[in-house]
Amino acid sequence: MHQPNESLTIAQRCRDSFVKLWQDEAGFVVSMELILIVTILVIGMIAGLTALRDAVVGELTDVARSVQQMNQSYSVNGVENGSASTSGSGFQDHNDGGSSTCIVVFGPPDES
Questions:
Q1: pLDDT per residue over 57-67, tens digit each?
Q2: Membrane-spanning regions, if any (predicted)?
Q3: The three-state (H, E, C) secondary structure of 9-31, written as one string
C-alpha cells in the first residue's frame, strides 16, 4: 500500500481500492443471507404468478364459454293503427358449426 501523502494515479487508487475490497470479508455473511432470502422470495413469486396465471386463464375460459352460449334470437310483433301498419320481424339464431366446442389451453375440456 502507498502512503496517504503520496500523489497516486487513478489506476493506482483503483487497484488499491480493489485490493482492499478483495481482502475484506466483514460483509460476507450478510450478503449470503440476503442472497438466500432473495432466492426464496423469487421462488415464492414464481409459484404465486403461476397460480395467478391459472386463475386468469380459468376466468377467461368461463367468459369464452358464456359468449359461445349466447343466443341472439329475437322477434318483434307488427303494429296496426288506423291507416298505417308495420309487419313484424324476427331472427332465429342457430348453432354455428364449431360453437359447441371450446378450445381449452389449460385443464381438461370437461372442466366446469
A1: 999 999 888 88
A2: 28-52
A3: CHHHHHHHHHHHHHHCCCCHHHH
